[in-house]
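Submission checklist for the structure archive. All mandatory fields must be present; incomplete records are returned to the submitter.

[x] Identifier: Aminotransferase
[x] Organism: Shewanella hanedai
[x] Residue count: 397
[x] Sequence attached
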Amino acid sequence: MIFTQVELAPADPILGLTDEFKADTRTNKVNLGVGIYKNEAGLTPILESVKLAEQRLLKTEESKNYLGIEGVQAYNSAVQALLFGDDHQVVKNKRALTAQAPGGTGSLRVAAEFLVRNTEAKTIWVSNPTWANHKNIFQSASLTIKEYRYYKAETHDKDFDAMVEDLSSAKAGDLVLLHGCCHNPTGIDLTESQWHTVADICLKQELVPLFDFAYQGFGDGVDEDANGLRILANAVPELLIANSFSKNFGLYNERIGAVTIVAENEADVKKAFSQVKSTIRGNYSNPPAHGALIVSTILADTELKILWEAELKEMRERIAKMRTLFVETLKQEGVTQDFSFISRQNGMFSFSGLSKEQVAKLKDEHGVYIVGSGRISVAGMTKNNMPVICKAIASVL
Ligand code: PMP
């Protein structure tokens, strides 16, 4: 017997919460745990641009033959254009190669496993706090995890001096995980000059940035959100990017993302990429096609691309409105504590500063679900559920 000795795994801090939410029979329950975009009606519909691309694919797709290990070529080129913009030297000089991978998670995992197996990089620095699954992914790939400070609870703001101090103690060849934009869970991003400082540190200390880019377009715009990544790509010889289209194309269950390697020159990137492909082959052989075909169809067609950008803008602007409404409604509910920092943050999430006890009360007494760390998915708020959320928060403070 081999299974009797297996220990029960703890529930996932985010997806476990969704299971609890589903089992909750209260009618006015609200899930602000998992990062899923909801529209004003509280739904997560398929984007119009995606539907149109799918209709085209239904007519034109002729085979379900395997893709190559690296996936759809047109998709991989489109990913590079989104990441680096048009005419970036990294692309022109053939220093970047991209492999389609299953979502941001799959991309991070492929990147981590490739690094551990083939390079001296064995340690990765992640922000404290960071997305709950980062540690899980990197530990599964046998990377050693260290943390750099990022957030100051007292000010509800970034602690950039502490970040710089911690990264300054990293060793040559260490990896640094950077959230490209819309930092999860805090919603607090680096400024342009801070990105330059991080680039200087990485260059001086020979650290290798690994960008987790899961929210391009949810902060300030598709190009604006890539600013940090492009600053680093201009400054350092080597970096990696794991990007996801789960959120910005609403393709959550298609599992579509990519891992991109940037090396010092074409010869190095080709060698590294051959090992990325070998890692993929040993994991899932080659990726599924549908998500990549949707994204590449949209990005290759002027009209569909314009439509997608408009839909993305609508999502981004709705979340920004919810931030302001949240702060206002809390005030109307008599909350005197200052929550204005929420309206200054970016992307789907905010760190509310609520304690574990307050989070538990919100769930048990009011059916409002947020992650134990106090992270709130602002993207799950609507005009309709706002009063319920704010009344509940006011009563647990
Ligand atoms: N990185 C971050 C920071 C995320 O928030 C997420 C999704 N919650 C991912 C990666 C993974 O995205 P995907 O669902 O595409 O695997």
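[x] Structure attached
Curator remark: The chain has 14 helices and 13 strands. Residues 66-300 form a domain with the Aspartate Aminotransferase; domain 2 fold (CATH 3.40.640.10).
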